[in-house]
Structure formats: structure tokens, C-alpha cells
TrEMBL record:
Keywords: Coiled coil, Metal-binding, Zinc, Zinc-finger. Residues 117-187 form the RING-type domain. It comes from the Eukaryota. The keyword Nucleotide-binding does not apply. This is RING-type domain-containing protein. Residues 69-103 form a coiled coil. InterPro entries: Znf_RING, Znf_RING/FYVE/PHD. Signal peptide: none annotated. One of its GO terms (molecular function) is zinc ion binding. Residues 1-50 are annotated as: Disordered. Residues 1-16 have a biased composition (Polar residues).
Length: 234
């Protein structure tokens, strides 16, 4: 062999390691347990751009360019606008509720007028209608109204008897006139007994329930019998 020829003798230390020695190269070791070498990403190599020393390249988004204080001011302005919007909406709802409340008060007042007696200005808990004119009043008010008329009539005709068409007046049989009962409102002549108004009676209790009122205690006996003292039995 020539003198300048150098031999490379592999040295096997174990079954997993192979050592090659040479004066001109370093030892290379590979084991079975070594992981596979990482493969470089060609795409990243293509995008790689050399950076000269002393030169800095900064990549930032538009949001990063905007100052933090400016973004905070914008967010605060939007929040204030939203608050003002909610306040206006709240004021609108408040006004609508007030209008609804006023409307209900007007309706309640109208219903109160419908169930109020024109004589005593109270609710007609026991309403009676006059058949001759159709007006309705409280039972007690009609009684008092007719009683006043009857008293005046009896002052003129002391022998008047509601259940006797003909009476004995100083030994003579006479037919005395009937009292001139009238409607307290329109003064229409009332010739027949008042009739209990059940429709108005129920309506009065509905309206009273809206305002938390309850009807008074019922009187004992039939209310229709009170008119027998004013009108002849039929």
C-alpha cells in the first residue's frame, strides 16, 4: 500500500453503535434510539428572508397601530350612547304607562257615572227602574220620593186608601184620585210599580270590585213589597 494511504478501521463497540475514526473527520454516532431527524419545511425556507444586522422589521396590525387610549375613548363613547338610548326608551315607556293610567281613570270615572244614582250620588246597590220612563234609581231614594208625594196627597185627601178605590167620606162613598207619582229626573208620571233592575245591579258590583268596594248587607224580605204602600195591588 502506498505510504500516504490511510486505512479506516471500523470499531464496533456494541451492536447498536458504530464508531468511525479518522484524523480528518469527527466521530459520528447513531443509535437505534435516536429519533428521526426533523425535516425542514420547504415553505418556511421559501418565505425566509435574510435580515441584515442593524435592521429591524416590525409587522403589526391596524389595531396595534391605534393607541390604547383612543380605543378606550371609542368604547366609552359607544357605552354612553347606549345609556342615553336606554334612558330615552325608559322615558317613552313611562309616558305610555301614564297615558294608559289616565285612560283607565277616565274609563273608571265614566263607569262610576253609569252606576251612580242621580238622587243620592251613590252607587245603586239596589237599583229599580221606572217602567213608564226607563230611568233607574236607588230603592231608598224612590221610596223617599214617593213617600213625600203620598204625604202631600194625604194632607189633601185624609181618607185616601191605596187599596180602596171607593172610600166613605162623611157618610158618602167617594172615589178619591190617586197620588201623582213622578220620575225624580224627567217628571214623567209613574203609574205602575218600579221593577228591580238586575242588569244594573250586576254592573254596579263589577265596577265596585274594580276599586275594591264590596256590596252592603242584603235586607231581609222582598224589596218589591215596599211599593205596595204606594200602588194598588194588581
Amino acid at each position: 500500500m502506498p505510504a500516504n494511504t490511510r486505512s479506516y478501521k471500523p470499531t464496533r463497540q456494541n451492536s447498536d453503535v458504530v464508531l468511525l475514526s479518522s484524523p480528518d473527520m469527527q466521530a459520528v454516532r447513531r443509535t437505534k434510539k435516536d429519533p428521526k431527524p426533523k425535516q425542514s419545511n420547504p415553505a418556511r425556507k421559501e418565505n425566509h428572508c435574510p435580515i441584515n444586522s442593524g435592521e429591524i422589521i416590525e409587522i403589526s396590525s391596524d389595531e396595534d397601530d391605534e393607541p390604547v387610549a383612543s380605543r378606550t375613548a371609542v368604547a366609552s363613547s359607544k357605552l354612553q350612547e347606549r345609556i342615553r338610548q336606554l334612558e330615552r326608551e325608559n322615558e317613552r315607556i313611562k309616558l305610555e304607562n301614564e297615558d294608559i293610567k289616565k285612560q283607565r281613570m277616565v274609563e273608571a270615572a265614566d263607569m262610576e257615572d253609569q252606576v251612580t244614582c242621580e238622587v243620592c250620588s251613590s252607587k245603586m246597590w239596589s237599583p229599580f227602574i221606572l217602567p213608564d220612563c226607563g230611568h233607574t234609581f236607588c230603592q231608598q231614594d224612590l221610596e223617599n220620593w214617593f213617600a213625600t208625594t203620598l204625604k202631600q196627597h194625604c194632607n189633601i185627601y185624609p181618607h185616601y186608601n191605596v187599596n180602596a178605590a171607593v172610600v166613605n167620606v162623611y157618610g158618602l162613598m167617594q172615589r178619591l184620585p190617586l197620588p201623582n207619582y213622578t220620575c225624580p229626573k224627567c217628571r214623567e208620571n209613574v203609574k205602575s210599580k218600579p221593577i228591580q233592575n238586575f242588569a244594573m245591579k250586576g254592573f254596579v258590583r263589577v265596577v265596585a270590585g274594580k276599586v275594591g268596594e264590596s256590596s252592603p248587607k242584603k235586607t231581609v224580605g222582598s224589596p218589591n213589597n215596599v211599593w205596595n204602600r204606594f200602588f194598588p195591588a194588581q
